[in-house]
Amino acid sequence: MPNMIYGTAWKKEETARLVELAISSGFKAIDTACQPKHYREDLVGVALTNAFKKGIKRDDLFIQTKFTPISGQDVNNMPYLSSDDILTQLEKSFYTSKKNLNIDFIDSYLIHSPFGPMEDLVKVYRTMEEFVQSGEVGQIGISNCYDFKLLSYLYDIAKVKPKVVQNRFYSESSYDKEIRSFCKQKNITYQSFWSLTANPNLLNSNEIQELSKKYKKTVEQIFYKFLNQIDVTPLNGTKSQTHMLEDLDIRSFSLESFEVDSISNLL
Description:
This protein is of the alpha/beta class. About 45% of the residues lie in helices and about 15% in strands. It contains eleven helices and eight strands. It has helices at about 15-25, 40-55, 85-100, 120-135, 150-155, 175-185, 200-205, 205-215, 220-230, 240-250, 255-265; strands at about 5, 30, 60-65, 105-110, 135-145, 165-170, 190-195, 230-235. Strands 1-2-3-4-5-6-7-8 form an eight-stranded parallel β-barrel, surrounded by five helices. Helix 2 (about 40-55) links the parallel strand 2 (about 30) and strand 3. Helix 2 (about 40-55) packs parallel to helix 3 (about 85-100) and helix 8 (about 205-215) crosses helix 9. The longest helix has 16 residues, at about 85-100. The two termini are about 25 Å apart.
């Protein structure tokens, strides 16, 4: 998995253009969801098809999408019927995603958010395990999971262990310190979203401002690099190619361990 993922939420009619721009700028990972309320997964598929026609190889891109339960859907525009049982919802959503994206293999497939009853959540996860075992999916995981006990339970019962937790990175969850520690122990990639939007106080902090001057990098670059160095893979939703190129350039430098600690102390 690359060290940064292009996020496609709320891009609407601009989705195809922006995803193509992200790929041409150097992004190797794309995140989407089968949730028409907030994503145009079909237009991500258009962008992928165009990229492949231009010579980008499928194996060079990491494609991640999600099964969104009814609670996160617009009931007037979703990939399944509200009357469908939970496994039919999953099946319809999964094959809609494959059709939308026009690919046979999904690198990473996530439950968009926990839902109840627990019996249904486990049924969905078990079926997603079968997607991995059948070779249709590379890995599975969960998003918007801030309950450590739930994550730990899911991990313990899993035959195919979750490989991704994707959460909002913000102070209200204490930056998921317990969950991130668990992820590190269990070789689970912790992906962050809202990394910049939810943290203006961190971007404006003296610590990051001073590092920006020292390294001659933007505060966003410093923060993204910090995230990588604490084993966080951030989603990046910028619409600016200048920012795309800048943010991907974080590979060109590293923060000193004491500098990472100085930012960590702010969390």
